[in-house]
Amino acid sequence: MPDTDSRLLRLAPEDNVCVAAATLEAGETLTIDGRPATLSQRIATGHKIAARAIAAGEKVIKYGAPIGSATRDIGPGEYVHTYNLKSDYLPTLARGEL
Amino acid sequence: MQGYLRSDGRKGIRNVVAVAYLVECAHHVAKEIAWPLRGRGVHLIGFPGCYPNAYAERMMRQLTTHPNVGAVLLVSLGCESFDRQPLADAIRASGRPVETLVIQQSGGTLRTIEQGRDWVEQALAELEHSPRSDMDVGELVVGTICGGSDATSGLTANPAAGRAFDLLAQEGAACIFEETGELIGCEQFMAQRAATPELGRRIIECVAKASHYYQTLSHSSFAPGNAEGGLTTIEEKSLGAYAKSGRGRICGLIKPGDVPPRGGLYLLDVVPDGEVRFGFPNISDNAEIVELMACGCHVTLFTTGRGSVVGSALAPVIKICANPETYRRMADDMDVDAGRILEGRATLDQVGREIRDLVLEVAAGRPTASERLGHQEFILTYKSFEPIGPGCLPR
Predict the structure, then answer these.
(1) Nearest CA in chain A to B326
(2) Hey, which residues does B143 pair with through a beta bridge?
(3) What is d(CA B233, CA B186) in angstroms, rounded to the nearest whole number?
(4) If both were cysteines, with which of B92, B152, B188, B214 could A46 make a disulfide (CB 3.0 to 4.6 Å apart)?
(5) Of A45, A91, A94, which is closest to B152 when you measure between CB atoms?
């Protein structure tokens, strides 16, 4: 199994995202599957980053199950959240969007 | 452990006096009756609506005859549509002391408050002699919900609650998980765990109903704080929430007010049947706790990442904090620090065992954090349900 930073959790082997087990700062370089990735922004505890490249339209997999589809190409180590991932069931609304 | 023995054979882990308003117009009077006595096991519940609703009437019957309730004072304005007589009759038939005060017939606010407090004092004295009897883990009904979820909920507190459910169900307790609107995306996994293929199909139907219901409302069961906590989609929230159910066989699908017939793991379908009416299925976390209590839950496991502070009237709430940073900020409100798992200071199995042990201690009388802080939240709103269909409770 290639090396991954111990502050990242991969919940199932087939997952294409990892979860931050602690808050990670912008500019930090992490190892994911033996490859380095530099964070372009702060990642708070529990938030997700891509474990590998994910193409627009591809399913994002966490807990070994799809949690939605990528809305644009996502690079390895990139933050994954509402701006590049959407539900396959129901839209996610933020404050002030109603 | 010992419980308060009720005439239907169920046993309570608390022995409270419930003061229940039957319309919002009676809420103030009922609250004034209960408030000075709240530290002595007097809890306020009620239904605010003036229009009739079969669900609300059934819920109030189940709640006022909940095993943790020893006596009930009903407070009516007088002109509301709630059918107070059958409710009083059902409570009396259960062997509990009950009194109905009708404000319009009792001389108004002050005189009703005075009469109400006198009656409650009398009931409290009577409850000191309530019969107790030995109670086994297998007689417990335990619910679980999550509220104020963040991305740590599904990593620590929810799977730890699931481990506790596995242990409790093995010991014969009935364990109930719910909020089918937060199981969207998990239906195929759940169906595989159903005791029979037919029950599996019912579970898939019930999640499809939830998905349709929320689609009509154009909003999933997803709060802005969930996204701020790192959750992106309803499926992601669902997969985390689903972990609360543990790994056991699902032996039934019930609806609010249905008491599990025996031990094991049950899914509670909380999304109304029929056309979308009355708005969101459960407008806030306490509406879910109320439905779990109506199914007989003695205690509710409440997992939170963002940091909820709520408790409940009638039945204790055990708060399991998923996020170690939240725990450090809000430790007084929490019973279990499950965020230790994320920091490598405990394993899921250890925290699961700790939750199971705490359930037994709370059942034996230990107050939870929200009980110590005086939390007694309660909310009941309009809904409508058909009875459960065939195959939902296979033997």
Answers:
(1) A45
(2) B176, B300
(3) 13
(4) B152
(5) A45
